Amino acid sequence: MTLQHRMRAWTRRRFMLAASAVALAVTVGGAPAMAQDKPFAGTKLTFWGGLIYSEAANKMLVDAVNAWGEANGVRTDVVMINQNEIVQKLSAAVESKTLPDAVDLSLELLLVLSRQGVFVPIDDVYEAVGKEGGGWYDAVDKASAVEGGRTGLPSGVGGNLLLRRTDLLTAAGFDKAPASWDELVAQSAAVTAAPVAGLGLALSNVGDGNMQLSVLQSFGGRLADDAGKTVTIKSDATRAYLTWLKGAWDKGVFPPGNATWDGAGDNQSYLSGQTAFIANTGSVGLAAKKQDPELYDATAYSALPAGPAGRISPIMLQMRAIPAASTNQAAAKALLAHLAKPEFASAYYEQAIYGPVLKGEAKFPVFDGKDPIHAGLLDLVENGTAPGYPDVYNAAFADAFSNFIVPKMAQRVVIDGWDFDRAMDEAQSQAQVIYDKY
Amino acid sequence: MSLSVETSAAPRRARWLNASRRVHLFAYAMVLPAIVLILGLVAYPFFYAIYVAFTDRMVGSVGNWVGFANFRYLAQTATFSSAIWNTIVIVLVTDVLKLLIGLGLALLVNQNLPGRGLFRAFLMLPWAMPAFVAFLTWRVLYQPIGGGLNLILTQTGLYPHVIDWLGQRQTAMPSVILASVWRGFPFWFISILAALQSIPKDLYEAARVDGANAWERFWMVTFPGIRQVLIITTLLSSIWTANAFEHVWLLTQGGPSDATMVFPVLAFFGMQTQRIGEAAAVSVAMLPVLAILVIVATSMLQKDED
Asked: How far apart are CA A406 and CA A424, in angstroms?
């Protein structure tokens, strides 16, 4: 048979048939292996990632989810949600039944929505990730426990550090961070001269304003009793806190506008050089590093000051959860486990303002102490207090927290000029109504 | 047999479906989509919100019927009382100011002045600007340090101290009102101007011939000519202002304390804490006020027509 003859024998139809047979054989033969390697192949997964102050971190998260999707044959749709708007977005999604397959959210929101059965328990992922990462930090482990099973996987620790302008304070004779709230006021008063107002703490109805609860607790005040049922705001300790607050207010150490600041008010105030102290997660430091290196160099970080009852420096947890309505829960679990792996987490922490949640993560280069912000966050997770402490961190607490009970009480005293008893009575009754619901 | 049935049924159908009925049916068919849309997009959400206001519904839960519990709770809170009072103050004061500014400018621009077309377009700018941009700009102007208003006051020596416009109880509400008036007066201006231009010129001539002075011409000729427009504009503006969210939210978020708290912001806080029942109760509590406003305005318009 000549070559020409053989070529003619391979007609187009024969070639197509042969190719199809080979393809079929490969598909059938390889299918079990593929199913083993890519059990979620062909599925779709929507992930609502937490949009934070760092563009690099946001991009890294999106890229990591998409790369995981590609590697596993999963079509991923990543939507980055500003964490200031997550309450509204997630509430709307719950009501309209358009929840994603996995979502980043705060522990407070997780706690409230978990009571409504919005999220599935992921104890298995929690256990596996914890084991692989050297164990969860105690504070993280205790705080993230939700009644009826763990419904969230901790993904980062935030909290307030005290940022201070060393250039102004050293010139005024203060070389050390204030150890108490009284010292803080004294140092603030020493550097207050227009346009600088020393103490840039928010007293408005935003998350930053809720730091006043920590101040109140460090004076020995509590939101509720040990059972987490009866509100105990009206107390001598709260009176002591309000006395401190009113004294500081009357000294003029708070910057104008701090009772109506939005979530970025303290950031802007510090970055524009109008305040000497703020309490912040560290995002301001990151912004200063890029926008104003001089300010960054002049900034020092320390733990929050202590009150008569000690230092209250609560950690805030960022969580990842899987809605019960998700039709792709297995893939979502795999994604959550993937994002907790050191390969991604180590690089992500470099760009994001979060402290570690797993003990093994403390060995990441970013936590080696060279970067003061991350060093502060590591210190926070190791030595900070659990969320809500000494109060019981339950859904009622989270609800009262979201209602800005303490900053509103503070505003009654400094803005409306109410006497302490009247302000405490209002806060007490409003908080009790909330606690009675749970 | 079958033929007789057909012949007896056909005239009956023809009688029932006569030309007049066919026109009516066609008309109903034409308005049916609109009725369905109104029922689905207006009536259903409206009555559903009223229902939810009587439940303890939270995000993710069906909620239980709690009767007037949400309203009782709201009535007990000082913030709710502030919201009622502040909403009334904002609506009344901004309406009066917008009326005075809108009417004054409309009367001015209605004169035969050079460049009035340009002036008219210029006056519409605040209305054309997105509310979000407008109120954020006002927020920057009100900044205690570096804000435009304080810079003007201190640089010109009019007032040497920094004023915390949005951060003090005494100045927060006037500041919100000023920004709202600035944003909203063009609607009044353009509505009144349109009404002024529809008044026949010979009425003014006749009044002049009768010896009417400027005030008498305004009161006897201009005012009756724009009365209906004023009623409708007041009604619309009041509803919009009472329902407006962005001006207060972007400027003060209802603070300091509850100095500028209004119904929509209070409802939003309810939503933010996932308590849908309470948030709906706040919105429903506004209904009687708005309903009274609508009834009064409608009856005034009816009286005018009669």
From this structure: 9
- Segment holding A240, helix H or strand E: helix A236-250
Helical pair B276-305 and B69-76, crossing angle rounded to 10 deg: 90
Of A116, A258, A411, the CB nearest to B61: A116
- Return the CATH number at B179: 1.10.3720.10
In this complex, which of B144, B257, B271 lies closest to A411 when CB atoms are compared? Answer: B257
Chain B residues closer than 8 Å to A94 by CB:
59-60
Question: Greater confidence, B86 or B77?
Answer: B86
Q: What tens digit of pLDDT does each residue of A389-422 get?
A: 999 988 889 888 888 999 999 999 999 999 999 9
pLDDT in tens, A335-366: 999 999 999 999 999 989 899 999 999 999 99
**Residues B149, B203 within the same domain:** yes
Q: Is the distance from CB of B165 to CB of B159 less than 8 angstroms? A: no
Report yes or no on B62 lying in a domain: no
Segments forming the whole domain that contains residue B14: 2-52
CA distance A203 to A216: 13
B42 and B143 share a domain?
Answer: no
Average pLDDT over residues A64-91: 92
Distance CA A223, CA A351 (A): 35
Of A352, A344, A366, the residue nearest A66 (C-alpha): A344
Domain count, chain B: 2
Residues in Cβ contact with A365 at an 8 Å cutoff, skipping those fewer than 6 apart: A346, A350
Domains of chain A (ranges, CATH numbers)? 44-158+316-383 (3.40.190.10), 161-312+394-436 (3.40.190.10)
Instruction: Report the interhelical angle of B78-109 vs B69-76 (nearest 10°).
Output: 80
Same domain? B117 vs B257: yes
Q: Which chain A positions have a beta carbon within 8 Å of B61's beta carbon?
A: 116
pTM of the model: 0.79
DSSP codes of every residue in B120-162: HHHHTHHHHS-HHHHHHHHHHHH-TTT-HHHHHHHHTTS--S-
Asked if residue B256 is part of any domain, the answer here is: yes
